[in-house]
Design goal:
Radius of gyration: 17 Å
Strand content: 5-15%
Helix content: 40-55%
Distance between the termini: 31 Å
Structural class: alpha+beta
Strand order of the largest sheet: 2-1-3-4
Number of strands: 4
Largest sheet: 4 strands, mixed
Number of helices: 8
């Protein structure tokens, strides 16, 4: 897998859609094979939420994008809880159907938005990793969508003027340049694997024994999602 260091200088409007489609094709068959009890498992990355809650949040967020429903306060904790509550009497299969439609139809909408919704696509992919962890499935924050996710992460951190970082990844051929280039501080340095880098940027705990090196920047500074 190769991700050139300078590939993120220009936003690719089709990238969010490719990321969502790749994750859809891997995640939905997995979810449809699980029992109802699995949907009640807690998700450590989202305290108080079950697998079903995370999936309902994801499906509702994508549906909002497709339907252009972004009222004031959308995606706040209160708004997210309301979206989940609105689906309380839905079957798990219905939630998965909505999620599949959203992962199919939201990509072009996000692409045309000029970048303001790109974080939604990355967040959906990260939540898919959260669900995999809860289900005890391998491949969390990895899989076929990882190259697109890393490229999207590069674009988002650059456009937001995030702390600069050069990442030498065990599983990527070329160094990855992340964050802004204001010159106000030298880039930090990360050495490790790509899923660990994603965990740090998503504010997720790093698995025990998954060693990495981070210099010139604190792990908390990398959290792109806040909170």
């Amino acid at each position: 897998m190769t991700t050139p260091a300078d590939v993120h200088d220009v936003r690719d409007p089709e990238r969010p859609g490719r990321l969502l489609a790749a994750e859809r094709d891997e995640l939905l068959p997995l979810l449809r094979s699980r029992t109802d009890a699995d949907f009640a498992l807690p998700v450590a990355a989202c305290p108080g939420w079950t697998v079903r809650d995370v999936l309902a949040h994801c499906s509702s967020a994508l549906t909002r994008a497709v339907e252009n429903r972004f009222e004031r306060g959308v995606f706040s904790p209160e708004s997210n809880d309301r979206d989940i509550a609105e689906r309380a009497d839905w079957t798990n299969a219905r939630i998965l159907d909505e999620l599949e439609r959203g992962m199919t139809e939201a990509g072009p909408v996000i692409g045309r938005a000029g970048g303001v919704l790109d974080m939604l696509a990355l967040g959906e992919w990260v939540h898919a990793g959260d669900v995999r962890v809860a289900l005890g499935e391998p491949g969390a924050y990895a899989g076929r969508g990882l190259p697109e996710a890393l490229a999207l992460l590069g674009t988002l951190t650059r456009d937001r003027g995030h702390v600069p970082l050069h990442a030498d990844l065990d599983d990527v051929d070329e160094p990855l340049k992340l964050g802004g280039a204001s010159g106000e501080r030298p880039p930090g340095r990360f050495i490790g694997d790509a899923p660990t880098l994603v965990r740090l940027y998503a504010g997720r705990p790093v698995e025990d024994g998954n060693g990495y090196e981070l210099a010139g920047v604190e792990a908390a500074e990398l959290n792109l999602f806040g909170g």
